[in-house]
């Protein structure tokens, strides 16, 4: 086989290689951008490792290798992102309260990133010092009866409600529907209805209908079917919650310490623009 044929075979093999395709496409992207920036005398250095990292993350997410077109799309997006960042900085768009807030929040995560995990004693002490945080509110389970009217009820229906009759008997006398509301506290009911109606329900005797609360759906009547008093769950039942609370508090303490250190590195001058 002569050298010309050997060269042609090598070229054909390279052309069929996906990695070569991706490399050539990336080169084309960079060259096109470089040409477009010639008159503006801008130079954008793009790190191939950043593109490779994004390709890797996408492949890990999808669980399958990307094809050439998908790799080109990721490379193009990365270059476009860098161009937009460069242009945004040139226009001073980074001097924006929302951007500053995002950067500050990211820096807070960086500064507070060394929080250790609590020991068993740490968790126990934190739990004992914050018992009221973990004490549950009193709960009720109620039956909600919605009557499809905002008008005054008939004497028969009102008598059924006053005597605490079951929902089936009431709905046989007037149109409406019923549904249970299990394990709700005062705050839950206040959010669904109103604080005043929530208090009426919690202060009512069991098996008595409380209402009406009027909405665009009609008249709401509630009857308590079960009560649960305030409860303090033991530590072993809420260990994960206590651990997260401990970490959050320790993270905040560490963060403030690191921020204070940064403050010490700066001289703060507040300019008075008033003449």
TrEMBL record:
Gene3D superfamilies per the UniProt record, alphabetical: 3.10.50.40, Porin chaperone SurA, peptide-binding domain
Keyword Transmembrane helix: yes
Domain PpiC, chain residue ranges per copy: 118-239
MF terms (GO), sorted A to Z: peptidyl-prolyl cis-trans isomerase activity
Record's keyword annotation contains Lipid metabolism: no
Membrane-spanning residues: 20-36
Entry EC no(s): 5.2.1.8
Catalytic activity: [protein]-peptidylproline (omega=180) = [protein]-peptidylproline (omega=0)
Keywords from the named record: Isomerase, Membrane, Rotamase, Signal, Transmembrane, Transmembrane helix
InterPro entries reported for this sequence: PPIase_dom_sf, PPIase_PpiC, PrsA_foldase, Trigger_fact/SurA_dom_sf
Catalytic class of the enzyme: isomerase
Family: Belongs to the PpiC/parvulin rotamase family.
Identification of the protein by name: peptidylprolyl isomerase
Organism: OM182 bacterium MED-G28
